[in-house]
Amino acid sequence: MLAGMSVDYYVRLERGNLSGASDGVIEALARALKLDDAETAHLFDLTLAATASPRVRRKRSPRALRPSVQRVIDAITAAAWVRNDRGDVLAANELGRALYLDLMAERTIPPNTARFTFLNPKAQEFFADWERSADDIVAVLRSTAGENPYDKDLTDLVGELSTRSEEFRIRWARHDVKLHRNGRKRLNHPIVGDLELGFEALELPGDQGLRINVYMADPGTPSEDALKVLASWAATQREITATLKEKQ
User: Fold this and answer.
1) CATH code matching the domain that covers 67-247, chosen among 3.20.20.70, 3.40.50.1100, 3.40.50.300, 3.30.450.180
2) 212-to-65, 70, 92, 102, 234 alpha-carbon distances in Å
3) What is the mean pLDDT of the chain?
4) How far is CA 132 from the centre of its chain?
5) More confident of the two residues 27 and 57
6) What is the pLDDT of residues 65-101, one digit of tens each?
7) Element containing residue 237 per DSSP (H, E)
8) Parallel/antiparallel/unpaired status of strands 89-92 and 182-189
9) Which distant-in-sequence residues (6+ apart) come within 8 Å of 102 by Cβ?
10) Residues forming beta bridges with residue 79, ordered by sequence position
């Protein structure tokens, strides 16, 4: 009644028959169900995926990075990385690599945030709010699956994690969705200890599915001091590596 549609029509939609459903119908349904922005976007994505022709179906997450994007993140003084929509980290600047030290050391190339969170025991020490981080990562993957359900890389990742992690499997079954645009993270870094950082996710319009994540500390906080120490440590490691290469 709130959405202005018959019971029969609603039941048809609920069963996945979305052919012919207009944007107005979907908007009315989202209002009636009091969906938030992420849930509403997910509903529209599911509708589009159900009715899109094979030509417009994007099938794989981006895996390549333009050199100019690498130069952009290298010019950022804060910690930054570039990820695709399934959580593969395709590139990072020096401080970004130092911040996510154990993630960047993963054997799987490119490293993946979801795989690290659920399959690497170090993640539960690294993320101070591991439960929330785990919830967020799965909700973002669920949103991505609605937007691009024909991504074989994503399907393979979800299958792997569902098989190997009960924590992931439970969360995936909830069907929660989330937009990963900004927020805060508390980290237990192996080099500099506790960090509380804000982050912003910046979409790259010229590279569909890629985002730059930038991590910053509030000015005048212990976390800002710790990031400076980490930047100095990273620079020292770079110099040591360069010296060793020269001697070889």
Assistant:
1) 3.30.450.180
2) 11, 10, 9, 19, 20
3) 91
4) 13
5) 27
6) 899 999 999 999 999 999 998 999 999 999 999 999 9
7) helix 222-247
8) unpaired
9) 116, 120, 122, 123, 126, 190
10) 215
Distance CA 123, CA 102 (A): 8
For residues 84 and 212, is the Cβ–Cβ distance under 8 A? no
Instruction: Give the span between the Cα atoms of 218 and 225, in whole angstroms.
Output: 10
DSSP state of 53: -
DSSP 199: E
Please report, as a single letter, which amino acid is at residue 115. R
pLDDT for 194-238, tens place per residue?
999 999 999 998 888 899 999 999 999 999 999 999 999 999 999
Q: Which of 10, 35, 36 is nearest to 25 (CA)?
A: 10
- Does pLDDT of 13 surpass 90? no
Residue 55: DSSP 8-state:
G
Give the count of alpha carbons within 13 A of 124, CB side only.
6
Nearest to 228 by CA among 204, 175, 192: 192
- β-bridge partners, 82: 91, 212
What is the Cα–Cα distance from 67 to 47, expressed in whole angstroms? 35
Domain boundaries, the chain: 7-56, 67-247
Q: Residue 182 pairs with which residues in a beta bridge?
A: 200
Encoding tokens for residue 163?
A: 């098989």
Cα-Cα-Cα-Cα torsion 233, 236, 240, 246, nearest 10 degrees, comes to: 150
